[in-house]
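Now for one specimen:
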Amino acid sequence: MIYIDVSVLTLATFVTGIQRVTREVILRIIEKDEDDVELLHYNAKDECFRKIDNKKFYDFYKNGKGIKQRMITGEKRRIEEIGQGDVWFDLDAAWMGKVRRSYLLPILKKQGCRIISHIYDIISLTHPQYCLERGVYNFSDYIGAHLSYDDEIIVNAKATKNELEKLVSTSDISLPECHVIYLGANFSNDRKIERNEVTEEVAKATENSKYLLMVGTVEPRKNHKLVLDAFEGKGMDGDIPSLKEQGYKLIIAGSMGWKMEDFEKRLKEHPDMGKGLFFFEGLGDKDISFLYQNAEYLIFASYVEGFGLPVIEGVMKGTRVVCADVPVLREIGGNKCLWFKQDDTESLASVIYEDTRNGKPAFVEKVDINSFLWNNTTDEILNILRR
């Protein structure tokens, strides 16, 4: 049996980032291998896991039917029941959950369970300044346990594998067999979304004007501040027009994260808010898909990433993507994107300005849509889990 703890996903009030990956992969695992996978939710009161009804999970996350809490059954799954012949697969952001992996994994290992983790990045260790202190502490426990007890590890980029190799080189731990599997980026429904299918707010914001788009959680490492500065023209000498002066609206779609109080206040008090500047939280796939397919440019300004899913989502939707020049985004985006110098508002504004003046020439390399399909990602993961 393959056991997957989805406690963090089932408690989340929105599905983005890691929770989106967890949802997309598990839906397809259920489609392909339902009888061999058991989803678990940790019940702190009973100090044990409870089994999740796969069909109800699928209906809720795929079809929007049912009530989330009702997918969690009364059937208990105690740790001592998981052992020889079983696979424990950490796919969700389990370091945010209740069960420390430094406690759980040694028990599972002793009982003969095969342990596999999906490590999205180690940003909490390499760039702790962008993370919550509690998250850094919890992730340190999580990654230490997995490096000590895993049979195999899955990552989404060679850059992350390189970071893991650097990390273990400073210790007496050897890196478990590590597989690079790129994430999918296709939406559940890839047809063109019409304006009458999206929320009224999104329809109004995108009406009769060209706009720039940012997608993802608003948090320090995503560098939304830089993009808003470039929109206003801050830090620019005047030779290149600001993004606003170039005639663009700016739309930010994503939940407001941690350490962003000043930025949130700046957004709320901005004179262009609701006119040339928009912030949307909690949008569904149709709204996001519509924003991608109609944006002039998607801007991705992160300091560091584990993959940069919106980059490939944008490319696959036919949006021109402008990225900060950092290693993992270069690996994923390659010649499919335009690049600007990180923390340089003039560089960002200039890249868009010059691209528009040049008539938006074709990129050197077109994305192979078959390289970034969720079905392919899931098949590769299942091949490892079943071995």
Notes: The mean pLDDT is 92.
